[in-house]
Design goal:
Blueprint lengths: L5 E6 L3 E6 L4 E6 L7 H15 L3 E5 L9 H17 L4 E5 L4 H16 L3 E5 L2 H13 L4
Helix pairs in contact: 1-2, 2-3
């Protein structure tokens, strides 16, 4: 079943961000996690999430975007998770597709986000992730 969504912005070669209002979620379809625009993309997405009252940030890794630099990874753990929580984003849901590498790579930021109080999850498809986001929005997952 098709989900109603609105394209918010694209940073060429880095990310495409879409809003799913029914699920109160933003989806970041990452093309690359290792561009100079990585932090800009996350800050902009989280600001949009706050503006739209989104509760879930869905990280779509199905295009094989690589991994962020060690500095960017530390920044996610030390700044971005807290920034997201302070703006009402209480869940981070990863979509890996069939990639074991994507699942392995996202473990570190998922672990850090969970330790800081964020709901986390791993899914194989966007449909699964949107279902989880709907559960977060309805209060079924806390």
């Amino acid at each position: 079943m098709a989900q109603a969504s609105t394209h918010l912005f694209t940073i060429d070669g880095t990310i495409k961000v879409t809003h799913y209002p029914t699920q109160r979620a933003l989806v970041g379809e990452w093309q690359s996690l290792c561009t100079p625009q990585f932090r800009e993309a996350l800050i902009r997405a989280i600001d949009e999430a706050q503006r739209l009252h989104a509760m879930s940030w869905i990280v779509d890794l199905t295009l094989g975007p690589g991994v962020p630099s060690q500095d960017d990874q530390r920044w996610v753990e030390t700044f971005n998770v807290g920034n997201a929580l302070s703006k009402g984003v209480i869940a981070c849901i990863n979509v890996h597709g069939t990639s074991a590498i994507a699942k392995l790579g996202s473990r570190r930021w998922t672990k850090s986000a969970g330790e800081q109080g964020m709901i986390t999850g791993d899914c194989s498809t966007l449909e699964e992730a949107l279902k989880m986001a709907a559960q977060v929005a309805s209060g079924e997952m806390r």
